[in-house]
Amino acid sequence: MIRTKTDDTAFTGLEAAIVLIAFVVVAAVFSYVVLGAGFFTTQKAQETVYSAVAQSTSNIQMTGQVYGLASGAGGTQINEIQFSIGLAPGAPSMDLSLMNIVYSRPDLATAPIILSYGGTTSSRTQFSSKIGDVAAPSLAAQQQVLIDFKVVGVPKNKVMNFEIRPSVGASLPFTRATPPDIIGTTVLY
In terms of pTM, does the model score above 0.85? Predict the structure, then answer.
């Protein structure tokens, strides 16, 4: 019987190389998936931060005084509120038809009144926004819009709370009071 000596060291080395290459390929695919998920998560986090900054900053600012208008000659109550608003520097244009104004008086036991956009007409449930005598359903940079709405008669020395709620961005709350003497056009302090 003839014995042949087999030398399989080269074959074992080839098997080890194939296994090593398979591990490297699997590790490369796995690292690509992990990096892709990391980039996606980072992008979503960045979008969330930018969105939060846009919504948390107030784009609206008061420009001037808040006025109370008394009806009739020698009126003793404020029946209409007027004030001007503008955009903060660098703020994008705003759709005023999507904005709400919340009006309340602490001395009354009624729920706050939420006013919506009403074009050029104002009432106790709608506000008007005008530039001059023209309705302004939107507000752009460098513009000032006159906001006007009617209220139930407010006598002297009463506090009123207002909150302007735009569709995007932070709301702008402020408080004003009627003075001891009410005239036709009264500056609320």
Answer: no
